[in-house]
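Hi C.,

You asked whether I'd gotten around to modeling the 456-residue construct. I have! Everything is below, sequence then structure, no commentary in between.
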Amino acid sequence: MTSTTPAAAGQLAGLSATTLLRFATAGSVDDGKSTLVGRLLHDSKSVLTDQLEAVEHASRSRGQEAPDLALLTDGLRAEREQGITIDVAYRYFATPRRRFILADTPGHVQYTRNMVTGASTAELTVVLVDARNGVVEQTRRHAAIAALLRVPHVVLAVNKMDLVDYKEPVFAAIAEEFTAYATELGVPEVTAIPISALVGDNVVEPSATMDWYGGPTVLEHLETVPVSHDLTTCHARLPVQYVIRPQTAEHPDYRGYAGQIAAGTFRVGEPVTVLPSGLTSTVAGIDLLGTPVDVAWTPQSVTLLLADDVDVSRGDLIVPSTDAPATTQDIEATVCHVADQPLAVGQRVLLKHTTRTVKAIVKGIPSRLTLDDLSLHPEPGQLVANDIGRVRVRTAEPLAMDAYADSRRTGSFLLIDPADGTTLAAGMAGDSFAARPAAPAPAAAASPADDDGWDF
């Protein structure tokens, strides 16, 4: 049996943390996100020759003398015709110091939902601001989403400094306003950098025209920012995705529970509890890529074998018995509403949490966030597209859900329309912003009984 010590597991996780950074770009329309990404890829020598030739050809056909680097990410025909980003574009590149997974997200209000998708797994978000316009509503919206999603690092890239004559007071005023707003949201760290993505100032190479700025370039900050996502020390959680029962002559009694470890570490001999049933057993074995091991950690995909023949199925959560979350049917959370149709009190939905999907009813919407001043509009009755608000949901079956502040994987969920499968909202359980307490929940209004299994 292959044995790996917890110390070795931590070392491997630390190695991953120093070599890989997931980050997203965000900002309002025409702030230059795609141009920044294109400049970052181009100047870091991460663009293949045929890609650059295709961009140069497309730019010439549109009457542009210089290559439009935004076309490196805006690949959809509608994006190129309208000159805006519509869908999230993922790019993978590397420098000698670090590997990167980049999500270029749209800036238009209509596509805020895509920004939620792109930032949900990010360890850093680059928020662009047009130096001529300063902080606008969409800037605040993206800062709020970064705070809600607990993105630990935020870079404020004040773009188009060439159009304001590279004036330091313009940059300083925007940086001060944004930092104050982000701090109130609970964002732990903001780094402000003045740039010109079109020209290349402070993107990869330091600017020769902004000698008053002595900080890092965008790429230098991305290469050196300390990223700590060592999930091996978090609460151990394994959402069961599939029960393996070969029932062959070679494996007549094999019963394994397969899934990707969402957080933490599992060890052979460790007492575990299956939720929501509460049944207990002991880890009898761990199979990793067909090989037995003594210990496994996130984000490995494994198969756990238990010492007892307990009832475990897809959607169950296997956790250490000494660190089991409480199960509940009443969930209060902050949601980003991403669907065109509104989300209303009393609405029947499906709630998807890890690998489990259950029926649920929206019992209340205590508040909707006003982004201008971070005030809470009480009891709005419904949330519409791109709204951020608090909801109370009652599920048909108990769920073992962590607070999102403790685990981004097991503290998040989706609300889904049961009629057509449309995703309605992305939810984060527990308190919302780190520096702001959750809105007090008023008494739930009584819901009329119904006769088709949705009154619970």
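If it helps when you're writing up: The first strand starts at residue 20 and ends at 27.

Thanks,
B.
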